[in-house]
Amino acid sequence: MTKKIVGNWNFPTSVRFGPGRISELADACKATGMKKPLLITDEGLKDLPMVRDAIAANEAAGLPTGLFAGVKGNPTGKNVEDGLAVYRAGGHDGVIAFGGGSGLDAAKAVALMAGQTRPMWDFEDIGDWWTRADPAGIAPIVAVPTTSGTGSEVGRASVITKEDTHEKKIIFHPKMLPAIVISDPELTVGLPPHVTAATGVDAFVHCFEAHCAPGYHPMADGVALEGMRLIADALPRAYDNG
After folding, report:
1. For residue range 73-96, what is the model confidence (pLDDT) as tens digits?
2. Which of 20, 22, 60, 122 is the most buried (most CB within 10 A)?
3. What pLDDT does 160 receive?
4. How remote is the C-alpha of 93 from its chain's centroid?
5. Helical axes 77-89 vs 101-113, angle rounded to 10°
6. Which runs of E-coded beta strand occur in the chain?
7. Could you tell me the pLDDT band of residue 2, with boundaries at 50, 70 and 90?
8. What is the pTM assigned to this prediction?
C-alpha cells in the first residue's frame, strides 16, 4: 500500500502538503491578511473545475476572489501589465499564484508590481537592483502549484519575456517568495501523461543541475540527490497511472 504523505514544513517557505489541502486556500489567504485576492493562472487552467472550485470555496468563506487568466506559456511583460491592471481595477489586496511555472511566475511579478512606480525591468536580477523596489508595495502571495516541474512556488524570482528584445529576464525580490504554498498532489491527477512526463523530467533536471553546480552547499546536495531518487521511483508510475 502506498503511504500517503501529509505534512507542514518550512524551507523557508511555509508549505502545506497533502491530498485535499486545497480546501485550506481561504485560511491561507486570510493568514496573510488578504480580504480580496486575485487568482492568477494561465489560459489552459481557467475553465477547469479546480479553478472554479477554489474561487467558489473562497467566496463561501467570505473571501471574494477575482480571476485573471491572461497568462501564456513563457509569460511576457504584457501579461504582467494586463494582470496588474485587473489587480488595481478590482481593488485586490493579495495574489493567489495558481498553476504551472508560467502562471506562478506571472502572478509573482504582478504581486511585486502592485505598489511600484518604476517599470518592472528596473528590478531585473542584476547586482542590487532589487533594492529599487518599495517593499511595502509588494502584495502577499499564496502559491498553488499544479505541476511538479517548476519550483517557482518556493522561489524569489520570475522569468518574464521582454517582447521588444525577445529576451527572458529574471525579475527578483526577496519578498516575491510566497508566504504560504498549498501543495496538493490531487491537483496533478488530471494532467495528461505527456505533461506529467515533461514536468517530472523538468523537476529531475532542476535537481541534477543543483547537484552539478560548482557552488557547494550540503543541504542543496541532499535535496538534489533525494529529489532525483524520488522522481526516478515515482515518475514512471505517475505517467502510467496519473
Report:
1. 899 999 999 999 999 999 999 999
2. 22
3. 98
4. 17
5. 60
6. 7-10, 14-17, 38-40, 66-68, 95-99, 141-145, 157-162, 167-172, 180-183
7. low
8. 0.93
